């Protein structure tokens, strides 16, 4: 395993993020073609930034951590002040990462 000098080693790569974004928009586009009602659509229940971020993290092998209620563990990010800091588990243990500013 190579050592990385990035401040946060557990960050999704741009490549994973791009692939996840493409996958999400392809799904939304095909639902529109198929005439899926808006309220049942992927577009209605996803976020253009947060959803691909979570997909990319899972693609890279990180497991999103959940509360006992099965809701995703989310904290307010101290840097960008948004409630978008998720908890993950990877090879190095549990860590938190903000979907918006990657803090
Ligand atoms: Zn943030």
Account of the 3D structure:
- The chain is an alpha+beta fold.
- The chain has one domain (14-98).
- The protein is built from three helices and four strands.
- The protein has helices at residues 14-34, 42-45, 50-59, and strands at 63-64, 74-75, 85-90, 93-98.
- Strands 1, 2, 3 and 4 form a four-stranded antiparallel beta sheet that branches.
- A hairpin with a 2-residue loop joins strand 3 (85-90) and strand 4 (93-98).
- Helix 1 crosses helix 3.
- Bound molecules: zinc ion (ZN).
- Residues 77, 79-80, 82, 84, 98, 100-101, 103 line the site of zinc ion.
Describe this protein with a few key phrases:
alpha+beta; 3 helices
Average pLDDT taken over every residue: 92
Biggest β-sheet: count, sense, barrel? Answer: 4 strands, antiparallel
Mass-distribution shape: globular
Order of helices and strands: HHHEEEE
State the end-to-end distance: 23 Å
Number of strands: 4
Give the domain tally: 1
Q: What percent of residues are in strands?
A: 15-25%
Q: Name the poorly predicted regions.
A: 3-7
In helices, the fraction of residues equals 25-40%
- Which class best fits the helix and strand makeup? alpha+beta
């Amino acid at each position: 395993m190579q050592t990385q000098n990035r401040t946060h080693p557990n960050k999704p790569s741009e490549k994973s993020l791009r692939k996840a974004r493409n996958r999400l928009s392809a799904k939304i586009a095909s639902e529109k073609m198929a005439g899926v009602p808006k309220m049942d659509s992927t577009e209605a229940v996803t976020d253009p930034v947060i959803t691909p971020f979570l997909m990319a993290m899972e693609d890279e092998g990180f497991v999103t951590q959940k509360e006992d209620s099965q809701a995703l563990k989310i904290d307010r990010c101290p840097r960008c002040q948004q409630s978008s800091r998720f908890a993950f588990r990877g090879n190095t243990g549990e860590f938190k990462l903000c979907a918006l500013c990657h803090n």
